[in-house]
Every structure is written in structure tokens, then in C-alpha cells.
Amino acid sequence: MNTSTTFSMLRALPAEHRERLMRSAREVSFPQGTRLFEEGARADRFWIIRTGTVALDMHVPGRRAAVIETIGHDELVGWSWLFAPHAWHLGAETTSPVRAYEFDAVAVRSMCQDDHALGHSVAQWVGDILAHRLQSARTRLLDLYAPYGSGSTL
């Protein structure tokens, strides 16, 4: 599945909601190897990648962080900002130079609270991405750490 196509903000949100969100965005860039956030830290912003790639990773005690998924063009980086307690559930690091749109989480949550239609659209978009990322994390961790065959479903 091409998540860039499936979960693109351009496809997921009605034009008026997308345009309203984009008015609050600012353009940022990060060199390769930049840690965008760490698990457990305060989730106070999120990004939509314009160019480059970001690896989402999960701390695994006694081992290197496990890369859960690598995301790129037009994809959302960060969903924890939308749900209390607003703390990152994963870590993220750029794997190439990245240009992105950055959004202030508090401002977007406020917009969503003031406009319930916008809030519903954003929640549906982020929820769909969250469901996909949780399945990716499960699959990746089974691939890395489970005995052979443990990932099969009954």
C-alpha cells in the first residue's frame, strides 16, 4: 500500500479544511540525522513532509531502536499531538535532508475545537494513519523479534 497516496492530507481533507490548516503551516528544513522527537517527550507540533524521508522508531530495551516505518513525500509525521496526554509514542529521525510543513499542535487543536467539522476531518485523517502505523509497528516487531511463524493469524 502506498501510504503517501492513501493518507495524503490532499486526499483526506475537504479543500476548505486543508486550506485552513495550511494557512497555519510554516516551512522548515532539517539535515539528515536530525531527531525530530523522542518517545515520551511532549508532542507540541507535527509535520507534513514535502521532500525527504523520516524513520519512525520504537525504543526496545537492550537493543537499538527498531525502525517501524519510513515515511516520505506528503505524509504526516506525528499523531500523538492530537491525543492526550500529548506525548510522543514513537521517535523520529530524518534519514535524508527533509523539507516539511510544520504545524503548531496547540493552534490546530484549538481550530479543531472551534470548528467541529474541521475537527472531525482531522481526527478521521489522523485516526486512519494511526491505525496503519500501529499495524506496521506490530508487523515490524514480529519480523524482528518473534520466533519464526509467530506473525501468522489464526
From TrEMBL:
Q: Which PROSITE patterns match?
A: CNMP_BINDING_3 (PS50042)
Q: Where is the Cyclic nucleotide-binding domain?
A: 9-78
> Native species of this protein?
Streptomyces phaeochromogenes
What's the source species' lineage? Bacteria, Bacillati, Actinomycetota, Actinomycetes, Kitasatosporales
Q: Which superkingdom?
A: Bacteria
Name of the molecule in the record? Cyclic nucleotide-binding domain-containing protein
Under the heading Pfam families, the entry gives:
cNMP_binding (PF00027)
